[in-house]
Amino acid sequence: MNVRIHDSWKKALESEFEEDYFKNLIEFVKQEYSEHKCFPPAPQIFAAFDHSKFEDTKVVILGQDPYHGSGQANGLCFSVNNGVSFPPSLKNIFREIENDLGKPVPITGNLERWADQGVLLLNATLTVREGQAGSHQKKGWETFTDKVIKTISEEKENVVFMLWGGYAQKKVKLIDDSKHLILTSGHPSPLSANRGYWFGNKHFSKANDYLQKTGKKAIDW
Known about the structure:
This protein has about 220 residues and is an alpha/beta fold. The chain has helices at about 5-15, 20-35, 45-50, 90-100, 110-115, 140-155, 165-170, 190-195, 205-215; strands spanning about 40, 60-65, 120-125, 130, 160-165, 180-185.
């Protein structure tokens, strides 16, 4: 398995690819994909980076694990392939956008359209075994994606980081809040959203206001 990642990220992250933990991680992933059904499909493992180039990234949304059901994961956090019914968290994301911006719920849950505008849809763990949530956690992915977050924080300015739920909010320590906007709230999963920790956070309008104030184009959510 070759590490296929967009050239714009290679410069920022190439030193990571030489680290022992990363080499061990890739060997683990190779073995898992050869012995089990895993998601996303191998060519889409680094899809988040392919769609949102380093220089174009202006929003980062952090998820935890890819979807582990057949045909769902496409390498972008919270996103599903065209024609796949919306998982509960994604439904709540679209409901919040509708409430916040008045935009109708889209017909597809494929978020490539966000990613192509510079929204890095990054899972902390980039792979998973079918039907086994969290099965590829603590194998090295988190070390790599923490480095991604830190690199964006250090080398870019005026990026919006959306950290939803306790797990994502632990990443605050990796981000320089003096030159970026950090938006935190409960997770969009029903458990959190139904307790009042998600709806009304207005993260999508807040992100666009900040981007426009800092001379960037707003995201068409």
